[in-house]
Each structure stands twice: as structure tokens, then as C-alpha cells.
Amino acid sequence: MALTCPSDLTGVDLGFIEFIDCTTLSINYDILGQATLSFTVVAAAKEPIDTSVYTDLTFGGVRFTGFITGLEIRKIAGTLVYEHRYTVSATGCRA
């Protein structure tokens, strides 16, 4: 269900809302073991606050470290939040 708020937000502070939508996570490996991670972050801020937190991630007991190769941002219709669609090139090792 989408994050929605009442239409009258006078004086309301949305604060810091940001999380990875785990249903969007995709991890693919090339023949040399290089991983490409794709995932969507739902955030109240239009611009990313700190992208470095998405270059060192652990999923399923594997720690992925790498760099961001793509980022698309769009507002989620009917809400006050945004989708930040990341693509990260990384290597993975058991955490």
C-alpha cells in the first residue's frame, strides 16, 4: 500500500522517511562474478540524502560493495514520496 497523507499538511513535518522496497531487489551476476544490483528506495526527499549507504549493502548473508551506475527518480502518484531506482555494480563476499 502506498504511503499517503491527508491533503492538509500545514505544519506537518514528514521527517526522514527512506527505505528499500525489498520486493524490487534484483541481483544478477556476470560470468566473472561481478554483481549488478537493482532496487528501489522509497523516500520523502526528492533528491538522495546520502547515496553512499547504497554502495555497501548486505542481502542474504552476502556483503556487496561497489558503486552506483544508475539512478532514476520519480514521484509516486497520489503520494508525497518518491521512488529512487538504483543500479549498483558490486562484488559480493559472505558477510
- Structural classification: mainly beta
Order of helices and strands: EEEEE
Overall geometry: elongated
Strand adjacency order, main sheet: 1-2-5-4-3
How would a textbook summarize the main sheet?
A: 5 strands, antiparallel
Q: How many domains make up the coordinates? A: 1
Strand portion = over 45%
The number of distinct β-strands equals 5
Unreliable parts: none
Mean model confidence by pLDDT: 88
Q: What is the oligomeric state here?
A: single chain
Please report the number of helical segments. Answer: 0
Helical residue percent? Answer: under 10%
Task: Please compute the radius of gyration using only Cα atoms.
Answer: 15 Å
Please give the alpha-carbon distance between the first and last residues. Answer: 32 Å
Model description:
- The protein has a five-stranded antiparallel sheet with strand order 1-2-5-4-3, with no helix packed on it.
- The model has no long low-confidence stretch (mean pLDDT 88).
- The protein has one domain (18-94).
- It is mainly β and 95 residues long.
- A hairpin with a 5-residue loop joins β1 and β2 (35-43).
- The chain is built from no helices and five strands.
